[in-house]
Amino acid sequence: MSGLTVMLFTIALVLISAFLAAAVAGKIARLDGATYPAAFFRAATAFATVLTLAAAVATALATVIG
Q1: Is the dihedral angle over the CA atoms 23, 27, 32, 36 positive or is it negative?
Q2: Residue 36 pLDDT exceeds 90
Q3: Phi and psi for 33 in degrees, rounded to 5?
């Protein structure tokens, strides 16, 4: 497998994980009685958090490896 393929699969995995986390956070917020805007905000926060965590891990790995 080439490096580009691994990178694309990793990006796809991170995006899928972020979307799933956002969907779960939004659903849990709605089940908790939050309004739609509040649930959407919680979902967006979860999505951004997953992407930020992935970027931090990638930066740390890049620092250690290279």
Answers
A1: positive
A2: yes
A3: 100, 10
pLDDT over threshold 90, residue 38: yes
Instruction: Extract the tokens encoding 45.
Output: 């926060």
Confidence of residue 23 (pLDDT cuts 50, 70, 90): very high
Which amino acid makes up residue 37? P
Q: What is the DSSP string of the chain?
A: --HHHHHHHHHHHHHHHHHHHHHHHHHHHHHTT--HHHHHHHHHHHHHHHHHHHHHHHHHHHHHH-
Contacts of 40 (CB under 8 A, 6+ apart): 26
The confidence band for 1, taking pLDDT boundaries of 50, 70 and 90, is confident
